[in-house]
């Protein structure tokens, strides 16, 4: 259950414990008495509200699959997160992916109440959390993984494209975009809003995604393309660098990253 970020609910001051003063060397000749043993003397300092450290865990982030109703937030997040416009997926690509394979797309959200002081490009496109709540809380997207499946073993320009007639009455067979029978999931976009980066949210999001796909048995591997400065970040999660990618998307200069998914345990088989 998402928790609110309503500052009115948080205490106006915080109490923090200072290191206690403990007598340096108790007399070893005296028998140890539970009741008379020296206790650390605690001191408390009141920190004014405006000087309190804002712990990122106060965001209480939660993940859930994205749906087409998240489209505007996904587009806003993509545009804010990728500095280079040529590396951003277009709105049309997101419409395609969120319609064709939204079960492969995961968002990380937090709950925000009006005037909480939190700013994010995705607040205007957030949705009310619960209609019964009087505080106007909305569910705000702060990071996403948007993916599709391919028959290839790595991310290619074709997998990053999409057939333009996909939503026509009789779409032509195409090797562009999502391939339902593919055993490789291509992560097209992994992003966290800039002001929320460096707080571990990308880690939480990617780990949640990997965990979900490891158990699902719907694919054999996760792949993506990354610039050299991001290769180390993905290696932290178990992705392997397979060398320079042939993909020319956004100007090229990518590396192929691959994560081999664990096979489905027999007892977890379903369907
Ligand atoms: C990539 C991205 C999603 C990471 O999200 P994030 O929330 O900032 O990531 P986290 O806070 O979980 O991870 C940061 C940690 O990774 C470390 N890190 C960052 N870059 C790293 C690298 N190249 N190699 C190893 N570690 C790296 C940081 O030092 C930090 O470590 P710490 O947790 O020990 O402090 C985010 O930076 C982003 O959205 N960037 C713009 C879009 C983008 O480039 N996406 C990737 C496309 S390939």
UniProtKB/TrEMBL annotation:
SUPFAM superfamilies: Acyl-CoA N-acyltransferases (Nat). InterPro entries: Acyl_CoA_acyltransferase, GNAT_dom, SNAT-like. This is Arylalkylamine N-acetyltransferase. Residues 61-265 form the N-acetyltransferase domain. Residues 1-48 are annotated as: Disordered. The keyword Transferase applies. GO terms for molecular function: aralkylamine N-acetyltransferase activity.
């Amino acid at each position: 259950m998402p928790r609110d970020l309503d500052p009115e609910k948080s205490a106006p001051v915080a109490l923090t414990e200072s290191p206690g003063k403990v007598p340096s060397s108790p007399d070893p000749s005296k028998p140890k008495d539970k009741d008379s043993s020296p206790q650390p003397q605690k001191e408390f300092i009141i920190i004014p509200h405006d000087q309190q450290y804002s712990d990122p865990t106060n965001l209480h982030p939660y993940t859930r699959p994205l749906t087409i109703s998240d489209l505007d937030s996904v587009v806003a997040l993509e545009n804010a997160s990728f500095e280079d416009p040529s590396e951003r997926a277009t709105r049309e690509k997101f419409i395609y992916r969120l319609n064709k394979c939204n079960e492969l797309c995961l968002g990380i959200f937090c709950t925000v109440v009006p005037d909480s002081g939190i700013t994010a490009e995705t607040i205007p496109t957030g949705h009310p959390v619960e209609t019964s709540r009087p505080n106007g809380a909305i569910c705000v997207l702060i990071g996403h993984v948007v993916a599709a499946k391919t028959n290839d073993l790595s991310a290619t320009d074709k997998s990053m494209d999409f057939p333009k007639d996909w939503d026509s009455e009789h779409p032509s067979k195409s090797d562009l975009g999502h391939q339902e029978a593919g055993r490789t999931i291509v992560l097209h976009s992994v992003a966290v809003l800039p002001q929320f980066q460096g707080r571990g949210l990308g880690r939480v999001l990617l780990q949640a995604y990997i965990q979900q796909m490891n158990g699902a048995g719907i694919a054999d591997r996760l792949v993506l393309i990354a610039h050299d400065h991001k290769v180390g970040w993905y290696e932290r999660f178990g992705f392997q660098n397979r060398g320079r990618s042939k993909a020319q998307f956004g100007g090229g200069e990518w590396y192929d990253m691959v994560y081999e998914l664990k096979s489905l345990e027999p007892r977890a088989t379903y369907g």
